[in-house]
Design goal:
By secondary structure, this protein is an alpha+beta fold. The chain has two domains: 146 residues, no CATH class; 102 residues, Immunoglobulin-like (Sandwich), CATH 2.60.40.1180. The protein has six helices and ten strands, in the order H-H-E-H-H-E-H-H-E-E-E-E-E-E-E-E. A six-stranded antiparallel β-sheet has the order 3-4-5-10-7-8, with helices on one face. Helix 4 runs parallel beside helix 5. The longest helix has 19 residues. The radius of gyration is 19 Å and the shape is globular. The model has no long low-confidence stretch (mean pLDDT 91).
Length: 269
């Protein structure tokens, strides 16, 4: 995962500072983002090929129930997972590609090969009353943050007087600073992007575990501001963090930004 967040240097060479990758979670072939967290298997019978068409390897998880449900806990977790996935995409180096409709929770009913469906299965939903407006606002907010911090997340040239030597660098952490757990059974990772070894600009924590996990924060000369917490349903004003660590709820993510980046929390945008 660290390789993809950094723009796939294993493919484009470690010493390549400027990213060349196209990053995406979903595309026109396969599940939509909502279906990715709603179905364990494809449901392509409407295509009249006895469900033989479409890929069988979807890397999806229905979170306990196949398809739509009235279970509020499952629906909340599915929403949170969509937010986690899009955050991981938009904090990564490279050009993000977003599937049409993922921003409003568009579903194809588990159909992962809808090219032949000139109907509701394949159409975009333009009716606001049937869109997931909470997810839409989240998408817009994360995109706004990415654009504001583009020289940190995705530098495409040397801004101002930056050189190869002082371009922001990645520092990987876990439940201990500078000690990421890359084992196959690990469900947590965190990283900071620093302008130098002792000056972190942003910190991101990802907790895919089933319980809350405490993460220590690297020392920062300025206040840390929490700007995204995917466990919360609403966008909130930046919150100053005075503690030396943060707790990330189960299957949630945090984005924390140094006040140095904006000058003050009220200047976020």
């Amino acid at each position: 995962m660290s390789d993809k967040i950094k723009g796939s240097p294993s493919i484009y060479k470690e010493d390549n500072i400027f990213p060349k990758s196209i990053n995406f979670i979903t595309s026109h072939d396969g599940f939509t983002l909502k279906d990715l967290v709603t179905f364990n298997r494809k449901h392509n019978f409407a295509n009249r090929e006895q469900n033989r068409d479409g890929d069988n390897h979807n890397n999806s998880w229905n979170h306990g129930t196949e398809g739509p449900t009235t279970n509020l806990l499952i629906n909340d977790l599915r929403k949170r997972q969509q937010k986690n996935l899009i955050l991981s995409l938009l904090i990564s180096k490279g050009v993000p590609m977003i599937l049409m409709g993922d921003e409003i929770g568009r579903s194809q009913g588990g159909n992962n090969n809808s090219w032949c469906q000139n109907n509701l299965l394949g159409w975009m939903n333009w009716e606001h009353g049937q869109q997931d407006l909470e997810l839409l606002e989240y998408f817009k907010y994360v995109i706004k943050i990415r654009k504001k911090l583009i020289n940190i997340f995705n530098p495409s040239f040397f801004p101002n007087n930056q050189t190869n030597e002082n371009i922001p660098t990645y520092h990987w952490h876990g439940t201990k600073l500078d000690s990421p757990d890359w084992s196959s059974w690990s469900h947590t990772v965190a990283f900071s992007i620093n302008k130098d070894k002792t000056s972190p600009l942003v910190w991101i924590g990802l907790n895919a575990y089933s319980k809350s996990i405490d993460f220590p924060l690297p020392k920062c000369k300025y206040n840390w501001l929490k700007v995204i917490d995917t466990s919360m349903s609403e966008i909130f004003e930046p919150l100053t963090i005075n503690e030396k660590s943060v707790s990330i709820k189960s299957r949630s993510s945090l984005l924390i930004i140094s006040e140095e980046v904006f000058g003050a929390k009220n200047n976020l945008f």
